[in-house]
Write a structure and sequence with these properties.
The chain is α/β, with parallel strands linked by helices. The chain has helices spanning about 50-60, 75-85, 110-115, 140-160, 170-180, 185-190, and strands at about 20-25, 65-70, 165-170, 200-205, 210-220. Helix 1 crosses helix 2 (about 75-85) and helix 4 crosses helix 5 (about 170-180).
Length: about 250
């Protein structure tokens, strides 16, 4: 692993006269107390007991970055665990409601397996529902996507050229990937986002032109052995084999 005073940061060449704003998305640590139920925006605590994971995550994240998190406690707890593992704590970490997980309305609290057993078979490709179908008294994935895009555009404009660490949720990060893919929200849902994984999305701008580059998605910089199999938690309607490693 790298020297903690000189952390390893993946570098990618940026052409002259191009402003690169690098987003480092971190999904929160696993929620253990959900009882197998859908939780969405329920403010559930997470398990931050695996110091090996947070030490490894901290060795990849850049120093001198701006930190943001959602308003849900599991993202705050995850950030605190990274700092406790030795990463320098930032002066501030604003809590952004636009970075919250999708509000799943009346589906929150329902047994996850039973819920998906009642849904059409092709829904497995579309998250909890097709992207434009709102949950009863909640949001659709498009609602989530639009507010994440709004936050990304606002923060990128305010802090152009900086490194931005955003501790968020599986759905939030899938939405951000959809933004980076050129406003294709359904394509973002094709990516797996594991607990504590890092996803890097670079916004590049020059002379009135802008676009995105995706250096990596779902990177898990800890040792993938059976001792960490329990890190994984489904970020949607996926089937997890018993031998799945984080």
């Amino acid at each position: 692993m790298s020297n903690p005073d000189k952390p390893f940061v993946l570098q990618h060449a940026v052409p002259l006269d191009v402003v690169a704003t690098r987003w480092w998305w971190v999904r929160h640590a696993p929620v253990r107390g959900d009882g197998g139920n859908i939780y969405g925006q329920k403010d559930m605590p997470c398990d931050c007991s695996d110091s090996v994971v947070f030490d490894a995550v901290g060795k990849i994240l850049p120093r001198n970055a701006l930190w943001f998190a959602s308003r849900l406690q599991r993202t705050h707890q995850t950030a605190e665990a990274i700092w406790a593992a030795g990463f320098p704590k930032p002066d501030a970490m604003p809590h952004e409601a636009d970075l919250n997980e999708q509000h799943l309305g009346d589906w929150q609290g329902l047994n996850r397996a039973e819920f998906f057993a009642t849904r059409p078979i092709n829904v497995g490709s579309y998250w909890f529902a097709p992207i434009d179908e709102p949950s009863p008294n909640g949001e659709s994935f498009m609602d989530l996507y639009n507010r994440v895009r709004r936050a990304v555009e606002r923060i990128t404009a305010a802090h152009a050229g900086r490194d931005i660490i955003a501790v968020a949720h599986g759905g939030t990060i899938k939405a951000a990937i959809g933004v980076a893919l050129g406003d294709q929200p359904e394509k973002g849902l094709a990516f797996t986002i594991d607990n504590c994984s890092i996803t890097r999305l670079d916004h590049l701008a020059s002379d009135g032109h802008s676009g995105w580059r995706i250096p990596f998605v779902n990177q898990q910089p800890w040792i993938a052995d059976p001792s960490h199999a329990a890190m994984h938690q489904p970020a949607g309607p996926e089937v997890v084999p018993e031998t799945k490693l984080a």
